[in-house]
Automatic annotation (TrEMBL):
One of its GO terms (biological process) is mRNA catabolic process. GO terms for cellular component: CCR4-NOT complex. InterPro entries: ARM-like, ARM-type_fold, CNOT9. This is CCR4-NOT transcription complex subunit 9-like isoform X1. The lineage of its organism: Eukaryota, Viridiplantae, Streptophyta, Embryophyta, Tracheophyta. Belongs to the CNOT9 family.
Length: 266
């Protein structure tokens, strides 16, 4: 949509009263969040408004205006819902779409805003309970945030945070065994790689708790096809080995990651 109507975003945002209408649409769902009484028609209407808001979030001229008006914060109560029926799932998906559009810009201001408003636990919740597309967007947001140093430091700042992220990444990875999703896999691998690169205890903890998949030759071989993913795999396994060496020096012993799965250094 943003490509088709490049100037739709500023046009929308600057139209009189539109920001208030966006807000009104989002807030109209609140009474239906708990107890859950959201109808499919209501959900569709708000999702349509959120699709337009996503357009505003994508555009470089309007992105920061949206943030300065704190509009993303009004999506948080929606992201906190856990009702599994379709109207709620779509609403969460559309809300994550807006946040996903914001993080695509890779700007520090966006990351700082989202981190300080505690988007990470909300993404983790959606990664855990969402269907495939919802999981993918929530994971994409976490991946984008962790691709920035500020975001990675934030996640690795306390053991609770680090373990919360690691636990949910493991859950998502495990869910892929039942329901494979190459696009989700492509996002989850860099998340592990980024965590493993952290020099704090987070990196060490990751190495000693790396899911079995990363010791499985067939799983690793399946990742060779996509060069970007393969690069992340190599980084992850290199970091894991380096962390392991550090922990062996620190502890004077330890288990190992299988050398069979070591990526060749081409
Ligand atoms: N207030 C919590 C914290 O700062 C927010 C939080 C909960 C969190 N779970 C998290 C942050 C997981 C990062 C990762 O730790």
């Amino acid at each position: 949509m943003t490509d088709l109507f490049h100037d739709l975003a500023p046009l929308l945002w600057n139209a009189f009263g539109i920001a208030a209408v966006f807000l009104q649409e989002i807030i109209s769902t609140y009474p239906a969040l708990s107890p859950p009484t959201l109808t499919p028609a209501h959900s569709i209407r708000v999702c349509n408004a959120l699709a337009l808001l996503q357009c505003v979030a994508c555009h470089p001229d309007t992105r920061m205006l949206l943030i300065k008006a704190y509009i993303p914060l009004y999506l948080y109560p929606i992201l906190r819902t856990t009702n599994m029926s379709a109207p709620y799932e779509f609403l969460r998906l559309a809300s994550l779409g807006v946040i996903g559009a914001l993080v695509k810009a890779n700007t520090k201001e966006v990351f700082t805003f989202l981190l300080s408003s505690e988007i990470i636990p909300l993404c983790l919740l959606n990664m855990e309970i969402g269907r495939e597309t919802t999981k993918t967007i929530a994971t994409f947001i976490v991946e984008k945030i962790m691709s920035d140093e500020v975001g990675l430091d934030y996640v690795c700042a306390t053991a609770e945070r680090y373990f919360a992220v690691g636990r949910v990444l493991d859950i998502v990875l495990e869910s892929l065994e039942k329901q494979p999703s190459p696009r989700l896999l492509k996002i989850i691998i860099p998340c592990y790689a980024r965590l493993s690169s952290n020099p704090s205890r987070a990196g060490l903890a990751l190495t000693s708790n790396l899911p079995d998949n990363f010791g499985d030759v067939t799983f690793i071989d399946g990742l060779r096809e996509d060069p970007t993913t393969w690069n992340w795999v190599k980084q992850l396994l290199d970091n894991a080995r380096a962390n392991q060496a550090r922990s062996v020096i620190g502890r004077g012993g330890g288990g190992g990651i299988d050398d069979n799965v070591a990526p060749s250094s081409e």
